[in-house]
Fold this protein.
Amino acid sequence: MLVIEFKKGQGLGNQLWTYAALRSIALHKKLNYSVINFENFKGKNFIKIEERDTDQESENINFKHFNEKYFYDNDLNCFVYGYDKDFKNIEENTKLEGVFQSDKYLIPDKEIINNFFKIDLKNYKQRIDFEKTCILNIRGGEYKMHRNLILPKKYWLDAIKNIKYKFDNFDFKIITDDNDYASRLFPNYEIIKGDIESDFLNLYFSKSLILSNSSFSYFPINL
């Protein structure tokens, strides 16, 4: 059996990446899988995933640990993870520890995630005209502590310019984890305020997007 753990304090994007990696390698290796502390899943109200594919209990197994390799980036002043090529050598009865945020962990390709996640739309009410709206998914929060990690305003302005060049009469609206920061960047753009579910589903349905360098948007735009 292969396992991961959903931990308190993990973001939804982090949980989805670790789960996708777990399911992918379990399928590739033809091994069973299970999620420890499944109740901590932040998307349980609108994303359907399977907690396990076996009745076997994980509590009595002495798991080995696969710790994804990482390094400290002196320029960014933070730890950075890349693809760990030892991932495909994971053995039976292993707990996966890491972030696993690379397409290379999705075997054979990223289309496999459509087998792992099912979106539940029963509570979704569309209030945006996605044919005429471009969403800016602005990441603030702890990113602001890293000068070389937070995207400069020029990134957003250049992207907006490109959208305006290609499409006429587009509205620009913002989805963000940091309303104060986003409103200072673009005081004239509406911030679509909502919870994690509405943010995810609005990105899921959007047809025109300007994305931040954050894991949160990967799954709604690729599912």
